[in-house]
TrEMBL record:
The chain crosses the membrane at residues 21-42, 62-82, 103-125, 137-156, 187-207, 213-238. This is Uncharacterized protein. The lineage of its organism: Bacteria, Pseudomonadati, Pseudomonadota, Alphaproteobacteria, Rhodobacterales. It comes from Gemmobacter aquaticus. Keywords: Membrane, Transmembrane, Transmembrane helix.
Length: 248
């Protein structure tokens, strides 16, 4: 099954190059996490806040901006390492504002389109399943699955171009979609596997004391793993479908 091969290949890409993955992402990731913690913007803190004040909203905005810059910086550097074997000269990868700007522009547009599709699907499936089964935990689970998997599929197909943007290739916005034509079932299964992996990685948080050091530590570790595997999945999709590389 190609979806499983892509998923496993992406995991191996990270853990088979763990020293390089840590060198490329370690300091940047820890710095943005430190900003979030210093501002009190953690997963548990955000869940506990029902109506944020102006100051709290400002803190969340700063933390989100730091996170987005960090994620883009790491993703671009990781794509370039895997595809071009470009390694950081020191403890931080190269920071190219122009390259990150192009990558961010494409990423934000894809994210907005995915969000729009997600909202439409949420409304449609929510109305259908609540009407059929009422509001239960099973209904909520069905709605989440029926929304997340198609949205991730759409997201992956369009985002296949992003590693090409990172390595300075002149690609059209829809080139990833065209390159993955006929591969929707594969991408759909890949999206499902990614969703299951995210649930598995997040599930230990429910067992750990809220706000504890262990809970915070797991947020840091699981967040890093999800980030790197997601970047690797995009790299693998680009390499396989656009550069026609074999899945080893």
């Amino acid at each position: 099954m190609k979806a499983w091969a892509i998923f496993v290949h992406s995991i191996r890409q990270v853990f088979g190059n763990l020293p390089e993955a840590l060198q490329i992402s370690g300091l940047i990731y820890l710095a943005q996490m430190a900003i979030a913690i210093a501002l009190g913007v953690t997963t548990t803190a955000m869940e506990a806040t029902t109506e944020p004040t102006g100051a709290e909203a400002t803190k969340v905005t700063i933390a989100m901006m730091a996170m987005l810059i960090a994620l883009m910086w790491i993703a671009v550097a990781w794509h370039r390492f895997v595809l071009l074997n470009e390694r950081p000269a020191g403890y931080l990868p190269q920071f190219s504002l122009q390259r990150l700007g192009r990558y961010a522009g494409r990423s934000i547009l894809i994210a907005l389109l995915s969000l729009l599709i997600g909202m439409v699907l949420w409304l449609a499936f929510g109305t259908l399943f609540v009407g059929l089964f009422g509001l239960t935990w099973l209904t909520e689970l069905l709605i989440v699955i029926c929304v997340i998997v198609p949205v991730l599929t759409f997201l992956y197909r369009l985002s296949t171009i992003l590693p090409g943007v990172a390595v300075d290739r002149d690609l059209g916005f829809a080139d990833g979609w065209v390159a993955t034509t006929g591969e929707t079932p594969t991408i759909l299964i890949l999206a499902f596997l990614s969703g299951v992996a995210a649930i598995v990685l997040g599930s230990p948080l429910a067992l750990l004391p809220e706000g504890s050091i262990l809970s915070l530590l797991w947020q840091v570790i699981s967040g890093w793993v999800q980030m790197m595997i997601s970047a690797s999945i995009l790299t693998t999709l680009y390499g396989h479908y656009i550069e026609k590389r074999a899945l080893l």
